[in-house]
Amino acid sequence: MCPTSVISNWEHELKRFAPSLKVLVHHGSSRRKNDDFVDAVPNYNVILTSYALLHRDVEFLSVIKWDGVIADEAQYVKNYSTKQSRAIRSLQSNFRMALTGTPIESRLEDLRSIFDFINPGYRGGTKRNSG
């Protein structure tokens, strides 16, 4: 998962540093959807998509049990209640990783949604824990 603006960078870097991996770029109006996408996933090692498409396509992306989900520029999901943030938390995976150079842009609370993506329920839900 990454911002739309860096999908091609990720694709280029994967080809450069991991040429043996099969990469599916899930992007654009001609992207695979629904059962066509779900059926294609086992044929690839890496699926690249954007935060914008994640919340549009969450219905079929969330039925897959992913080996891992990596969120590049994870500050894109800093607001707990946005569609993007809810969509990424709905994905099932064996592991999750968040990459960001700016985990806190203005408030410590910005980090909460990122932590909840990495470790769901680490603070007991959406309410703040006392103590």
Automatic annotation (TrEMBL):
Coiled-coil regions listed: none
Domain Helicase ATP-binding: 1-121
InterPro entries named in the record: Helicase_ATP-bd, P-loop_NTPase, SNF2-like_sf, SNF2_N
Keywords recorded for this protein, A-Z: Hydrolase
Single Gene Ontology MF annotation: ATP binding
SUPFAM superfamilies linked to this entry: P-loop containing nucleoside triphosphate hydrolases (SSF52540)
Top enzyme category: hydrolase
Keyword Ligase in annotation: no
EC number per UniProt: 3.6.1.-
Xref: Gene3D superfamilies: Tandem AAA-ATPase domain
Pfam families listed in its UniProt record: SNF2-rel_dom
PANTHER family (alphabetical): SNF2/RAD54 HELICASE FAMILY
Protein name, entry field: SNF2-related domain protein
Organism: mine drainage metagenome
Lineage of the organism: unclassified sequences, metagenomes, ecological metagenomes
